[in-house]
Amino acid sequence: MNSFISDLRERLKNIRPTRWVRFGIVSLIFFLWVIWMQNPWLLLLWLLLVDIYITGYIPWTWWKKTKEPVRTVFSWLDAIIYALILVYFIFAFIGQNYKIPSSSLEKSLLVGDYLWVNKTIYGPRVPQTPLHFPLAQHTLPFVNTKSYIDEPQLKYHRLAGLRKIERGDIVVFNYPNGDTVATKIQNPDYYQICYELKRRGIEDPKAYIEANKAMFGDIVVRPVDRRENYVKRAVGLPGEYLRIKDDTIYINGKPIEDADNVQYNYVIPVKSPIALEKWQSIGVREEDHGNSPISVDGIPYMFYDVPLTKEAKAIVESWQEVDGKLIKESKSGFYELGGMFPLGNSYGWTRPDMGEIWIPKKGSTLRLTPYNLPVYERAIRTYEGNDLQVKDGKIFINGEETDKYTFKMDYYWMQGDNRDRSADSRYWGFVPEDHIVGSPMFILVSFDEEKGIFDGKIRWDRILRNANPDKDTKWK
Fold first, then answer.
1. What does the alpha-carbon distance between residue 237 and residue 166 come to, in Å, rounded to a whole number?
2. Which residues contact 191 (CB under 8 A, 6 or more apart)?
3. How does pLDDT run across 203-248, given as a tens digit for each residue?
4. Cystine design at 343: which of 27, 172, 195, 213 (Cβ 3.0–4.6 Å)?
């Protein structure tokens, strides 16, 4: 015992003052993190910091005494591991970068925008799948294998944040329908594929998908925090009643105003093709203004089907190529508007007309009926982990007959600003609170994927721009 104490004193005496300072700073950050986590058992990890910075009983840097090239290799490994651990904690508890892959939020956020997503604003979610590679969401690039280990799975827990989600917030979240994935076809998602196969007369879609791996790929199940990241705007909050009528969103019976950048698709009849440069001048992407001739009552008809904001619509109406009135795509009769949430429902809902829907709120009890059960079935069974059965018209939850349910989490209704080209809550329903990742703060950098490096590929005017400018002007 005396020899151990003597050895410890000698080690402490040889520690340089600068190392004590570094140890103090790291310890302070660590203690603040433990307080934030509200888990005193984590204090045991501080003993590792003591040994790493001060006592050195564990030979953490044994490789420094080896010869070349071993010393060089391990020095690089040491730096990489340290960096990955740092990135892991930053991405898990502070924020991370996120790329906009689709046009569902145009013109608020553009395809090719790289965002910094703030996780502290709603409170960071403690990783439910703690053993994962921090730079990949669910699949390691090149090797195409899982970037995480399934076990252990931790219970959902969210740390204290700055505020709750407000209407108009642009929110990043894990895709609710992303628990089961057909790896070769991820859009439409697995459940939409099953729904379409059922419509085509295939009695057991799941068995059909399993038997046709060449078409659909492997069927994988992903934990909540390893599902695909989506980004939409929060329009409906917990406990509210939401209805959509003629593309207008009503909350508790009152209409809410669209943000300036909300756009709808319009069928545009034309006398002659419209030049690419004209579309680009109003910010319409090349892939969004495809035109094709169709026949109406035997008469050839040329039209464009294009997403437009109010401002862009007014400009297009003045173009000399336009030959008639612009018609909303949803009213044109050219497109099928089915497949709405909940899939297979008999409500007759369409993209511009839905509701009325009550959005579940934590601690609130809902009266269940065979009529409204399809709306809440997935939340009760899948998101909140209950055994839900319907037998002879009666509802059983966890084996007990009931006509009510008290929700364990808050839920949100999310929609894209590009209303007719957004896969959002109108198609797959509520977003549970345990799927929420954070909110974009600003745009790191932006690349126009339709242009070359010397032809305006970098959108310089978007760098460090506010990622949600409409929030301050429209959504109060």
1. 7
2. 177, 180, 343, 428
3. 999 999 999 999 999 999 999 999 999 999 999 999 999 999 999 9
4. 195
The three-state DSSP-derived secondary structure of 242-306 is EEEECCEEEECCEECCCCCCCEEEEEEEECCCCCHHHHHHCCCCHHHCCEEEEEECCEEEEEEEE
Q: From CA 159, how far away is CA 170, in angstroms rounded?
A: 20
Which residues touch 234 (CB under 8 Å, ≥6 apart)? 165, 166, 167, 168, 169, 170, 171, 412, 413, 414
Question: Global pTM?
Answer: 0.89
What are residue 295's DSSP bridge partners? 300
Q: Which residues contact 69 (CB under 8 A, 6 or more apart)?
A: none
- Two structure tokens written together for 153: 């799975």
Residue 367 half-sphere exposure, CB side, CA atoms within 13 Å? Answer: 0
Residue 277: its pLDDT value, please? Answer: 86
Give the residue among 127, 138, 177 at the shortest CA–CA distance from 382.
Answer: 177
State the DSSP H helix or E strand holding residue 440, giving kind and residue range, or none if neither.
strand 436-446
Q: Which helix (H) or strand (E) holds 11?
A: helix 2-13
If one counts every other C-beta atom within 10 angstroms of the C-beta of residue 190, the result is 23
Alpha-carbon distances, residue 31 vs 27, 90, 136, 160 (angstroms): 6, 16, 28, 16
Cα 400 to its chain centre, rounded Å, is 35
**Edge-to-edge strand ranges of the sheet holding 394-397:** 388-391, 394-397, 400-401
Place of tokens 């899982």: 146
DSSP string computed for 322-347: B-S--EEHHHHSSS----PSSTT-SS
Q: So what's the pLDDT on residue 294? A: 56
Determine the Cα–Cα distance for residues 451 and 149; give it in Å rounded to an integer. Answer: 39
User: Which residues does 62 contact at the CB level (< 8 Å), separation at least 6?
Assistant: none
In sequence order, what E strands does 379-433 have? 388-391, 394-397, 400-401, 404-406, 411-415, 431-432
pLDDT in tens, 438-460: 999 999 999 888 788 877 789 89
Alpha carbon 150 to chain centroid distance?
20
Stretches in the chain below the pLDDT threshold 70: 1-2, 290-300, 471-476
> Could you say which DSSP state residue 223 is in?
-
* Contact call for residues 424 and 412 (beta carbons, < 8 A): no
